[in-house]
Amino acid sequence: KTMMSKRQLVSKGFSYVSLADENTFALASTDLYGWLKNLSTPVVIDEAQRLPNLPLAIKEIVDNSTENSLQYVLTGSALINRNGLDGQDPLARRAQHFTMSPLTQCEITQNSRNIVDSLIESNPNLKYEKEISREEVYKIMAAGGFPEYQQSYDSYEAWEREKLVSNDILAVLGDTILPGERLDRSMAVSILNKLLCMPGGILNTSSIGQDLALDRRTIERYVSVFLRRFLINYLPNIKTAPNRQTFTRAKIHPVDTSLSIQTMISKGHNPLEDPVMYGNLLESFVVNQIM
C-alpha cells in the first residue's frame, strides 16, 4: 500500500506523510486538528489506523471545506477506526473504503479475466484435461499472494520462509500498529496458531478456549483483533440467525494460505502429506481467490 500510494498518487501531486514516523505521530497526537490543517492537500496519510480520532477530525475539516475534489487518502496496516460518532462511521457518505488483499493468481499471472465473472458467466470446458500436480498446487499455496513471499519463494530456504512469516505475524501483532489496543502477544500468537492450523474450520471458541485454558470471551476478543489486523477472514454461517451473524460458527480462513502453511510446518505438521490439512488449505486458497 505504501509503495502503491507513493508511485500512483505522489507522482500525481499528492503529498505524503506517515504516522509510522514517531515524530510525525507525536506531533499529530498533540494537536490533531492543527496538524491536519497544516498538511498540503491532497495528501496520503499512511498508517492512519494509529490515530483513532483521525476520521472524526477529517470529517470536521471536510464538512467546512468548499473543495469538491479528493483531499485525503488514508491507508493502514489495520482497520481504520469507523466508530467516532456513537458507534457510527464519521466519514459515512464522505469516503470510499477499499481493502487490499494479497494478490490472486489472476493478478500474479496478469490475467485480465475476473474469476468471479468467469464462474458466473462462463461455461465449463468439460474437455479440459491439463493436469497440475499436488506438489505444484502446494507450492502455489505456500508462496501465497503477498508479493514478498510470492516473488522470492524459490530464493528462500524452507527455514527462512518459516522465519519470515513468523516475524511478520509478530510485527502485525505488535503495539506499533494499533498503539491503543492492549493485547498479550504471547496469548495472541497461541490463539492465532490454532486458527491458522485449521484453515476453513468452523469457529468454536469454547473448544479453542478449552485447549488453551482460556475463557471463550477472550478467544472472541482476539478473533476480532485478528480481523482488524487483516490476518484472517471469515465466512458467516448462513444457518445462524441474521442478528447473530458476526463470526459465530463462521468459517475462519487465513488472509493468505502462506500464513497457514508456514505455521503448520513450524508445529511439526506436513500439510503436503496430510490429506485433511491439504484439503483445508485448498478450500482457503479458493476462498482467497474469490474474496
TrEMBL record:
Q: A single Pfam family, by name?
A: AAA_14
InterPro entries noted in UniProt: AAA_14, DUF4143
Q: At the top level of its lineage, which domain of life is listed? A: Bacteria
Boundaries of each AAA domain copy? 2-108
- Every DUF4143 domain range: 192-291
Task: Spell out the protein name for this chain.
Answer: AAA family ATPase
